[in-house]
Amino acid sequence: MIIEKKGKIIKGLGGLYNVRVRENENEIKIYTCRAKGSLHKDEEKLLIGDNVVITIDEDTPDGIVISDIEERKNALIRPPMANLDYLFMVFAAKKPTPVLEVVDKLIAIAIHNGIKPVVIVTKQDLGDTLASEYAQIYRGAGIDTFVTSSESGEGVASLSEYIRYNIKEGKTSAFAGASGVGKSTLMNALFPSLELSTSEISRKIERGRHTTRHVEIFDINTDEGDVGFLADTPGFSLVDFARFDFFDIDDLPQTFPDILPYANGCTYADCAHVGEGSSDCAVARAAEEGKIAPTRLESYRSIYRILKEKKNKYD
Ligand SMILES: Nc1nc2c(ncn2[C@@H]2O[C@H](COP(=O)(O)OP(=O)(O)OP(=O)(O)O)[C@@H](O)[C@H]2O)c(=O)[nH]1
Ligand SMILES: [Mg+2]
Ligand SMILES: [Zn+2]
């Protein structure tokens, strides 16, 4: 007999996928299976977070395959996931030193894809002042921001409350950021039963050791009646706008909600808001008045330059 079931891909390793299926009210089952040949085509490569149909042929051993993918809400390259509702941008107050341009690029990509960005500044115990300064930048940009320490427990309860309140009813979320910032450690602090592996950053170069090797989605908030999903993901340090087409240059202002109102209000002719010190540019003026954080404007201008160069090349 052939049976079809709907489920969600929660992990994938070497062509084998774990698909989470709700069998009935009380039972969740994980099926390990391969994808049907036609689903291997590059453009529709399966992603963690995909909602899929699996076909079970009870008459053959290994007779379970992923036979269809449901239409995606969105898909990201980093972390490689589909159907995200929330993306938690995780970086440390120090060790490793954050690269805010990468954080800002990720936030822009999330917003462009209709994913709600949330910032988490970890390792507050290593640098309280730095952590507050970073948090100030993102709160000022209107982004939900948390400061945590998995060492002292600071901020963990309020983040936990936020996650419990927002990541439920099938919503999918992920922790993303550089290696060694403490994503897995924080997930363990929030959900001790996960027991994810973590490891010290390299003392010499102060970089993480890429401890988490694959994306994996976990059930959370199951006590609320319905489930929410949270993924741990491998660390990455590059978001390459030159190589990948995340969005067009015309879409850029919408991805910076803190700059958008001033960009819209700028009456300087054909202004791209990237000129240094032009007193006619409303964005430059707002930055001078301290209404836009300098690092946010730098990131905006950096993305603009990359997209502009790309456009000039192909137009
Ligand atoms: N002092 C301090 N150390 C922390 C904190 N959170 C994590 N660490 C340490 O930072 C190191 C890296 O933590 P991980 O959780 O493995 O980092 P990760 O972001 O998951 O790294 P990848 O899996 O490589 O992407 C570990 O030695 C943790 O103990 C914190 O809040 N304070
Ligand atoms: Mg990890
Ligand atoms: Zn302008």
Can you summarize this structure?
By secondary structure, this protein is α/β, with parallel strands linked by helices. The chain has helices spanning 100-112, 128-140, 156-166, 183-190, 260-264, 282-288, 294-314; strands at residues 2-13, 16-24, 27-35, 51-57, 64-69, 75-76, 81-82, 86-92, 116-122, 144-147, 172-176, 216-220, 228-232. α1 crosses α7.
Q: Secondary structure elements and their pairing?
A:
Blueprint lengths: L1 E12 L2 E9 L2 E9 L15 E7 L6 E6 L5 E2 L4 E2 L3 E7 L7 H13 L3 E7 L5 H13 L3 E4 L8 H11 L5 E5 L6 H8 L25 E5 L7 E5 L27 H5 L17 H7 L5 H21 L1
Parallel strand pairs: 3-5, 8-9, 8-11, 9-10, 11-13
Antiparallel strand pairs: 1-2, 1-4, 2-3, 4-5, 6-7, 12-13
The structure holds guanosine-5'-triphosphate (GTP), magnesium ion and zinc ion.
State the main characteristics.
315 residues, binds magnesium ion, OB fold (Dihydrolipoamide Acetyltransferase, E2P), Rossmann fold, globular, binds zinc ion, 3 domains, alpha/beta, five-stranded mixed barrel, binds guanosine-5'-triphosphate, Ribonucleotide Reductase Protein R1, domain 1
